[in-house]
Specification:
Layout: H1 9-21, H2 35-46, H3 60-76, H4 98-117, E1 124-125, E2 129-130, H5 133-150
Antiparallel strand pairs: 1-2
């Protein structure tokens, strides 16, 4: 079974089409964020490999869990469970404009794609440890897929 990745053109376009299917009134299956907040959250997550957001240092215990989680996700190709905790810097608990959030995320995806093509993504993530280009593409796809499934798209 092939692993999906934002570095694969078909998978990248699939994510963009699914984002286009969202509406301001799309209902969530779990969590607290509305669709606009989720889009903003996904935009913030993509800013990490673009080096626009720096995550705080994590302790050894959490980093070990993160590294194991990354390996387990690649081996079993499973998704992210609902209601997983995340870094405070990327929590969106404020009001967001839906159209602005969607446009920002679509632009950020294109920016991410360009960075990937130039091979300038970082070689490290504060939680997941050492990262290769293939790790970024896989993990970013999984994150977006997780939240799009949250809103039934």
């Amino acid at each position: 079974m092939a692993l999906k990745s934002l570095h694969n053109e078909n998978d990248f376009n699939e994510i963009k089409l699914r984002i286009a299917q969202l509406s301001e009134t799309s209902e969530r299956k779990w969590g607290r964020m509305n669709a606009a907040q989720m889009l903003t959250h996904c935009d913030l997550i993509l800013q990490i490999p673009l080096k626009k957001i720096e995550l705080p240092k994590t302790n050894f215990f959490f980093k070990a869990i993160g590294i194991c989680t990354k390996k387990e996700m690649r081996i079993f190709n499973n998704g992210i469970p609902p209601n997983m905790p995340c870094f405070r810097k990327v929590i969106v608990n404020f009001e967001c404009n839906f159209d602005e959030a969607r446009n920002n995320l679509l632009k950020r995806l294109d920016e991410y794609r360009m960075a990937s093509e130039k091979n300038i993504l970082p070689d490290h993530h504060e939680l997941f440890g050492k990262m290769k280009e293939k790790d970024w593409g896989f993990m970013e796809y999984k994150h977006l897929n997780h939240h799009l499934k949250q809103f039934n798209v």
